[in-house]
Amino acid sequence: MYQLGKLNSEKKGHYHIILQSIFRHFSHVCIVLIFISVSLSCAQSKEKNEIDQRPNIVLIVADDLGFGDIGCYGGEIETPNIDALASNGIRFSSFHTAPMCAPTRAMLLSGNDNHIAGMGGQGLVTEVFGYEGKLTDRIVTIPQLLRDAGYHTYMAGKWHLGIEPNDNPHRKGFEHSFVLLEGAGNHYTNQSALNNGISSYTEDGEPTRWKDGNYSTNYYTDKLIEYIGRYKADDQPFFAFAAYTSPHWPLQVDEKYWKKYSGLYNDGYEKLRERRLNSLKKAGIIPQNAILPQLHEQIKPWDSLSEVEKMKEARKMELYAGMVDNLDDNIGRLITYLKEIGEFENTLFVFISDNGAAHRDFINAENYSSLREYYNDDYENMGKENSYISYGPQWAEAGSAPFRYFKDYATEGGINTTMIISGAKVTRKNNIHTGFLSLLDLAPTFYDISGATYPEKYQDKEIYPLRGRSLLPYISGKTDVIHAPDYVFALEHYGNAMLRKGNWKITNFKRPFELENFALYNLSNDIGEQIDLKNTQKEKYEELLMEWAKFSEEVKIQIPAPSSK
Ligand SMILES: O=[N+]([O-])c1ccc(OS(=O)(=O)O)cc1
């Protein structure tokens, strides 16, 4: 018994030791497990905090807005909401886009040249490199990379980067989108002058119709607010692209927006242009010694117009001002909403125009026969949903003062546009930056801010590297310079060509395109591109032409552009 008892007690002791040791080990294991899980959850919540802190990005693009239109650029049009963004941030006086809508949007969303992106010629669809008429897989878009980096991505407004389902914003990185696929459409209805009479809209890639009676800018704002609202409770930041179609023709807006501008333009476009020159100077946007360039040859002197013509002309500008006023109101609605949901402080805002003021006036009911059956452009009807008005080169040239010409041209009037950056990450307040920058700098800025890395390949395809530079060091006050003094920037669209190296610029818009038609300007004292220095600064001219040849080969420019399939 004893033996047995001893054995039993020995056994028991043995078991006890084993159990103790298991327990000790177990408790060690537990401690280690607890430690791992605590550190993991700390790491996770740290990561979560980091994600939480990344700012939302709101990119607002106005369509064909003139350089000096808005209040904070000296303009008489009332834009208190955009002005408030400006006073809380930076206005740029030398921000550059492409001279037309679609190449600008391609450059903006890709951070690359329009040919590399696939938009060498707005309106062309070909199989030729650079002229595919859509965003190709040589590039990746801002929403694609931001979405991969954990952002929600929303868009409302004009797309204009391809009409096929595969080209849709839904396939190009936007989680939610409500878009007009073409370059322009009636602001109140489905009617279009461009696409067999009907505008094409899609929501999240599915065809949809415009609900007649809704107004473009109001509805696009509603849509963005709806998309942001859907996910406001989760932790992800968002990228919202407000691609407004205002103040693009047809000039249409509710009376309450334009009535307050009644009579303001009765002294004509040349006078407005002079006022704009002075108001831009007063706002500190352009140099005090800037002068107005020669008027475009298409423009009839105001004094040569009849009284009836003058009335109609002045009304065009009143309508245009009303559209900009309404645009500002809607930006205010978006801001108010972001304040209500507590997201305003953590949002970076960028406001730009897609190109200079628009001169095209061939699309109106008078001279565009397919529109006559729908539209009535009589004085009393101007601005209503069944009128089709554009304000023409005369007002566009006032809108692009003090630059030469307007949209379509690669002169500064076509490509030097309004740009404001404000909000999260922007430490400079009420600041004006006069140095050169371009829309190619926006994609790298957004990647920098969101922590997204730009890859060498996207979805197994090699992509072209970014061409611009992040603005983050500048906007956060870490540097005063954006681009080096010898920075080269060039662009081409239908033979409208420019290349800039520092303040030297070569510009070409003559037809047919010939290399020797490039003129040379020194923008440090000639922002109106009036004094051609190519015969007196031969070395500089040759240097810039060499840069042009390099650029042209690199992005595979074809002049004339290949024809559509
Ligand atoms: O010629 N069009 O058909 C045409 C021209 C310009 C345009 O506006 S833009 O903003 O898309 O350049 C739209 C259509």
UniProtKB/TrEMBL annotation:
Domain Sulfatase N-terminal, first and last residues per copy: 55-451
GO molecular function: arylsulfatase activity; metal ion binding
InterPro entries found in the cross-reference section: Alkaline_phosphatase_core_sf, Sulfatase, Sulfatase_CS, Sulfatase_N
Statement: the UniProt record of this protein carries the keyword Disulfide bond: no
Membrane spanning stretches: none
Keyword vocabulary terms for this entry: Calcium, Hydrolase, Metal-binding
PROSITE patterns in alphabetical order: SULFATASE_2 (PS00149)
Listed Pfam families: Sulfatase (PF00884)
Family under the similarity heading: Belongs to the sulfatase family.
UniProt name for this protein: Arylsulfatase
Source organism of this protein record: Paucihalobacter ruber
